[in-house]
Amino acid sequence: MRRSELIVFLIFLSSLAISIYFYPKLPDKIPSHWNIQGEVDGYMNKLWGLFLMPFVLLAMFLLFILIPRIDPLKANIEKFRKYYDWFIILLFLFMIFLQTFIILWSLGTKIRPQIAFTIGLGILFFYIGFLLENTKRNWFIGIRTPWTLSSDAVWDKTHKLGGKLFKVIGIVALIGILFRKYAFWFVIVPPVVISVCLLIFSYIKYRTESK
Fold first, then answer.
1. How far apart are CA 105 and CA 50, in angstroms?
2. Cβ(168)–Cβ(175) under 8 Å?
3. Which end of the chain is more exposed for a tag (fewer CB within 10 A), N or C?
């Protein structure tokens, strides 16, 4: 087992231990969703609310182990494997952060979700920028459009641009902390817009390369 795989497995075990420890301490219903104003608008039975996260992490753990082993272009994944491994670790830390946030809220420590989620996602988006800049063509990780998957040149150009833009998205998300009322928009809108732009960019680059 790789060191990164061991780390994320330990994060999964930590999530499971947290769920077991806090289960008798929490009310029967715990929050499961917040609106863009940071108000709770959804609740879940605490059994599902606490133990869903560990099982999601376990499924993700198995998936992330499997991907580098079954991808027909797995040799390319090895070229950026350290960035992939660190992304998995950061993603798992973000997930256990969400679990902790829900537990704290349920116990009465109500941290503003506009701040907590925005910081977490901002950091995650910024690191995705590094991942994209170093990603080589494969079938599972990165900006996978028909045009990037058909050309190494288009893949590289699209991912270099995508990496820079996702770093910008991460910074924009963090700036959203200063505008708490609109913080979620700083997190939601930029990735959608940039994803559409990168889709169009990859098509244009493919057409250019074909000529």
1. 13
2. no
3. C
CA-to-CA dists, residue 60 to 54, 90, 120, angstroms: 10, 13, 19
CA neighbor of 175 nearest in space, from 101, 112, 119, 94: 119
| Residue 175 CA: distances (Å) to CA of 37, 171, 182 | 17, 6, 11
Res 68 pLDDT > 80: yes
More confident residue, 181 or 19: 19
For the cut 90, the answer to whether the pLDDT of residue 81 exceeds it is: yes
In this predicted structure, the answer to whether residue 27 has a pLDDT above a threshold of 80 is yes
SS3 content of the chain, % helix, strand, coil (to 5): 75, 5, 20
**What is the separation of C-alpha 95 from the centre of its chain, rounded to a whole number of angstroms?**
9
Tokens standing for residue 14: 């930590």
pTM assigned to the model? 0.93
Cβ within 8 Å of residue 158, ≥6 positions away = 143, 145, 147, 148, 198, 201, 202, 205
> Residues 186-207: pLDDT tens digits?
999 999 999 999 999 999 999 9
The residues near 170 (Cβ < 8 Å, ≥ 6 apart) are 122, 123, 124, 125, 126, 127, 128, 129
How confident is the model at residue 36, as a pLDDT? 78
Residue 125 above 80 pLDDT? yes
Query: What is d(CA 206, CA 8) in angstroms, rounded to the nearest whole number?
Result: 37
Upper half-sphere CA count for residue 178 (Cβ side, 13 Å): 4
